[in-house]
Amino acid sequence: MLTVEGIEKKTAVIGVVGMGYVGLPLALTYAEEGFKVIGYDIDKKKASSIKAGKTYIKHISSERIQDAVKKGMECTADFTRIPEADVLLVCVPTPLDDHLQPDLSFITGTAEQIGPYLKKGQLIVLESSSFPGTTEEIMRPVLEEKSGLTAHKDFHLAYSPEREDPNNPRYTTKNIPKVVGANSEKSLELAVALYEAALDEAVPVSSAEAAEATKIFENAFRGVNIALVNEIKVILDAMGIDVWEVIRAASTKPFGFMPFYPGPGLGGHCIPIDPFYLTYKAREFEIPTRFIELAGEINTNMPRWVVDKVMNALNERKKALNGSRVLIVGLAYKKNVDDMRESPSLRLIELLLEKGASVDYHDPYLPKVPRTRRYNYDMTSVELTPENISSYDAVLIATDHDNVDYDYLVKHAQLVVDTRNATKDIKEDRDKIVKA
């Protein structure tokens, strides 16, 4: 039976269901704080990697995994071991389907898997981003049906949205404040104690629904503001004004302004997806979400605008995009990570191929394009040699990894289309550079 005392004394066993970009750092953090940790994942390769002390996520070191394994952390694909854990932190994907509708199959599927093995007194915390009501209206009924137990009576249930920023050295799992919500006093008490035992700060709210809404609002806020700056970019580009210069100048205002930055589209698991979860739920209450949907439309159209910029830049050099060779630099959705989730680079490849271009890519963290739910490109990363670079009609910078030499890139390229302002400090050959 899980108790606050057991959490504080670190005798409680922490189970993490889903050992990906969210679950693995969470499991490591609890192991580092002295808890016994069991990871659960249907991917047996992850269990094997952790047992061998090898990382499968670029920004998490093998040494960190090895240290956690020495402290007793393990990972298994055997869900019959669910009863060994006192706490189950569920960290599974919540994507959109092809019609931009929430796909909760990972949540319901996981609930069906763990439900038969739940024991009385366990605490289950959902961390996956979703619309208000998911924990109580979607996950709870499945857990109760499969276990024969009742939430908030036989087992405890809470929601705490993940707040991960991969490869951010300033903000980690441990020092990012953790919002926690539950629909019973005891479930909330245990969940808050759980996070306070390993993280710097827990922020309790009145319900699971309030915690779910918090995460959706955070990412809708970012998505709307990124859409605004992307729209400003398009307007200023038509006027011949550098949007990056304008953002830099506006950022000197010490109040009333927060800088957001444009790009070739939105990537990552949260910002391109979470706002649509809110619009989906809002329809249940017959409330239109025009603002959020417009922002999504603007951000979704960015890759097409970028491809038009490439086409126009080639046209000015008396070349057609159809038949041209284009090298995309950067596949990951943000710099210095190997995370491909919702990366706009995949959409850029699709659009360029549709226009008749021949496309290759370079990414130091992704030697091969991984298969996704929507895309399956059989491509491998091209080495950045002078001969390779110069053989392309256009080089498109989609992700501004720090370990790419942009001076070298521009020097040997015929044309560089820069969507990330990666070439801002380059003095030579600026006539080759087009910002997009």
TrEMBL record:
PANTHER family: UDP-N-ACETYL-D-MANNOSAMINE DEHYDROGENASE. It comes from the Bacteria. Residues 327-425 form the UDP-glucose/GDP-mannose dehydrogenase C-terminal domain. SUPFAM superfamilies: 6-phosphogluconate dehydrogenase C-terminal domain-like, NAD(P)-binding Rossmann-fold domains, UDP-glucose/GDP-mannose dehydrogenase C-terminal domain. NCBIfam families: NDP-sugDHase. It comes from candidate division WOR-3 bacterium. This is Nucleotide sugar dehydrogenase. Keywords: NAD, Oxidoreductase. GO terms for biological process: polysaccharide biosynthetic process. Belongs to the UDP-glucose/GDP-mannose dehydrogenase family.
